[in-house]
Design goal:
Helix content of chain B: over 70%
Largest interface: A-B, 20 and 18 residues
Structural class of chain A: alpha+beta
Radius of gyration of chain A: 20 Å
Distance between the termini of chain A: 24 Å
Largest sheet of chain B: none
CATH superfamily of the largest domain in chain A: Rod shape-determining protein MreC, domain 1
Number of strands of chain B: 0
Strand content of chain B: under 5%
Helix content of chain A: 25-40%
Shape of chain B: globular
Strand content of chain A: 25-35%
Number of domains of chain B: 1
Oligomer: heterodimer
Strand order of the largest sheet of chain A: 1-2-5-4-3-12
Shape of chain A: globular
Number of helices of chain A: 2
Order of helices and strands of chain B: HHHH
CATH architecture of the largest domain in chain A: Beta Barrel
Number of helices of chain B: 4
CATH class of the largest domain in chain A: Mainly Beta
Chain lengths: 221, 87
């Protein structure tokens, strides 16, 4: 069934890109020059950050190699065919499948690094991805501020919930990292709810990935 | 018969291309509008197959939307008789 609808979704993506380019055609010259300058500045800043992060990443990798835990660098780039809100649940359909080397339970992440979900079904040329933010999905993670292991409970729409003892220090904007050897950011604390009589506080976390506009993902088989 | 068929085709396209907050209300409205609109179950099944999760787990509850529409079609039958609708 997925393979029947895939050409439609691929065509839809092509049309969307065409319309985006059409909108650019009608922009004024001054606006384009201004936008170009802003983007150049942003690019220069991002390149600097990238270089400094790369140094840290290289140091971490060499450390892991010394301890015999080198990460495999084989990644599969994939386009997102369908994403929320077209899917009523937090799931994606991507255009890489068994032919491309995608396997069940493979980790899916954004090209920038943050992990977003796992592959739950593999077809020949496509795969279904369940996002960590799917309702009821539990993911092990770490609260960066105090290095406390937490269990993220998916709440749908790119949101998570955590229950923590009231004494654990948490603030809005704190990062939640994946509980792996090379941690990547999963979400950011968005809100904290606690009544004076509660022994636990409810922490609402929002995913760093915008699941409604996702176009490309990277799969680690 | 023709409007019903055209609606089903339109809903099929909507399910394949539009956000869920458009196609789910559209299917529900079609169920209310047409008498015993069993095509909705097929559309619900399609939504579950295309976008649902845990489809590979044999005994688990895998077609929630198709089941919801099946129940809704039966429940709406006596209600429809009390409403004045064109079809």
């Amino acid at each position: 069934m997925i393979s029947v609808f895939s050409p439609l979704w691929k065509g839809e993506n092509a049309v969307a890109i065409g319309f985006r380019n059409l909108a650019t055609f009608f922009k004024s010259k001054n606006a384009l020059i201004e936008e170009n300058q802003i983007l150049r500045d942003k690019l220069a800043s991002s390149e600097l950050t990238n270089v400094s992060l790369q140094t840290i990443s290289d140091a971490e990798n060499s450390l892991l190699v010394n301890f015999g835990r080198a990460s495999t660098n084989k990644l599969i780039a994939s386009a997102v065919l369908v994403h929320p809100p077209q899917t009523p649940y937090d799931s994606l359909i991507v255009d890489a499948g068994a032919v491309d080397g995608v396997s069940l339970d493979a980790v899916v992440s954004l090209p920038e690094g943050p992990k977003i979900g796992t592959v739950i079904e593999v077809f020949n040329k496509s795969a279904r991805v369940k996002l960590y933010s799917s309702n009821g999905e539990k993911t092990n993670a770490v609260l960066e501020r105090s290095n406390v292991p937490v269990s993220l409970l998916g709440r749908g729409g790119g949101n998570f919930e955590i229950a923590l003892p009231r004494d654990v220090a948490v603030e809005v904007g704190d990062k939640i990292l994946s509980g792996s050897l090379a941690p990547t950011i999963i979400g950011v604390v968005g809100d904290i709810e606690m009544k004076p009589t509660d022994s636990f506080k409810k922490i609402m976390v929002r995913s760093v990935a915008n699941i409604y506009t996702m176009r490309f993902v990277v799969i680690t088989p | 018969m023709m409007p019903r068929l055209l609606t089903s085709l339109a809903l099929l396209i909507i399910v394949g291309t539009m956000p869920f907050w458009i196609y789910i209300p559209a299917i529900v409205i079609a169920v209310i509008f047409f008498p015993f609109y069993f095509e909705a179950v097929v559309l619900g099944f399609l939504v579950d197959v295309l976008y649902g999760q845990h489809i590979s787990q044999g005994l688990s509850f895998v077609f929630p939307f198709a089941l919801f529409l099946s129940i809704f079609i039966v429940v709406i039958l006596p209600v429809r008789e009390r409403l004045r609708l064109s079809y």
